[in-house]
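Model the whole thing, not chain by chain.
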Amino acid sequence: MSNVRVRFAPSPTGFFHIGSARTALFNWLYARHTGGTFILRVEDTDQARNSEQFLKLIYDSLTWLGMDWDEGPSPDGSGERGAYGPYRQSQRGAVYEKYKQQLLAGGRAYEKDGAVWFKLLGDRYTVFDDHRKKEVEKVKTAPVVIEDLIRGRVARQEDEDFVIFRSDGNPVFHFVNVVDDIEMKISHVIRGEDHLSNTSKHVRLYEGFGVPAPLFAHIPLILKSPEMGQGKMSKRDKGALIEEYQQRHFLPEALVNYLSLLGWNPGDDREKMLIADIIKLFDLPAVNQSNAKFDGKKLANMNMTYLLEQPADRFVGLARNYFKAQPNGAAVLADEAWFREVMLLAQPKIKSVDELGAYTVYFFTEDFPIDAKVKDKVMAKGDPKSRLAELIAAVPGMDFSSDAAIEAAIKTLAEGRGLGFGDYQAVARLAITGTNAGPSITAIFRVLGRERILARLQRFLGAA
RNA sequence: GCCCCUAUCGUCUAGCGGCUAGGACAGGAGAUUCUCAUUCUUCAAACCGGGGUUCGAUUCCCCGUGGGGGCACCA
């Protein structure tokens, strides 16, 4: 067990964002890499915007992604574990009060306009701030120098007193963040670069409390992809919410793998990696300094490569979860053995689990759609109606015992007329599945069975 | 406006003074396959600009420019 203690400190004020997930991930990876402690702390001081629903979403998303926390609220929200609680800021009022009194008593804070302000040390002067369009009091101070683990030395001037308790009596972010990091003995603050400018405030606060500051590591931000526009990813952007991937039944390890590569790399060409290897290889100095744009296509590709190699049981389980949430789910799942067979036929073909519904409809209903474009194309080539009639004649006597037997039968039929397998395949597929994409036609014959194949062929020919 | 961070193919990135600037996703072409997809081969694609430092800069420094973030009694 190392002395590394890191925390992920989200606010339950909105959906769980991909940027938050990445920050959580880097903290978690660092804790696991170093054998340290990963803490979840809920920053719910903004009573107006907090909600229990969003809090639950944080627990669920972290759990889904496989980021377990050593201290913090329990995943079901019922209690908590760890020696430095409570882990919800809304329950830490007494702690903040104590630290406020300490500053007040030491002359490092004062009241003004009903709020409590942190007092900087140095000579004071007044200037007109043309950004805020008002007179402000400034303080001459030495620059705050931060030795950031990712950015190197960063110097920034902090030259204005700032509010630490609002006039409504509630403490502000900068204050509670620092107090809790002290109380929870946080060793490394790993957070988004958007906090880099805040860090000078935080360092002054640590000084005010007479406590050494933790080490800082400011990670790059995730930006919109070029199609989405400019700026950092916001909750409005497509693909920005973890919930979305969960609903689409992405593999969490694929998402984690992709996220780990946004701003970090193992130092060689490896991209697809086991979580265990990512943990082993991850380190703070290897994190990039520049922001990364989100690429949904690369994520989708990562998800597909994971999907292709899933063991049958896991894939079928994933498929089952997906269909449970579909309107026709109960019917699809009715016959377990058959469901499994169909899903395993689809596994090597699909790119994501949420394609499964459309990809396998015709296995579960006679009322499947016919793709008009595919129909036009297939029916325009050769003499498909004759091929269909020939198949209808042959199917009753065909050996359906294996894919190989079916393939042999169709080939024999084709050769007898100087044709190829393909001349039957396309039109049979169209008649039986309504599309041109799918598993091998022989497997479809075998799984659907003689009666249904024959019925579909006849029905299609009759309508054509 | 002020402050901070940052800059290699469209995108994620490797490179840590001397390389035909490498890989991956996306895109193009081809091969394999009963379709589709996978897979394989292959093509196209980048060092933001200007000054330095150096025998030599993608690499180090400075200045621009571009991108990002921050400047609240939000977090």
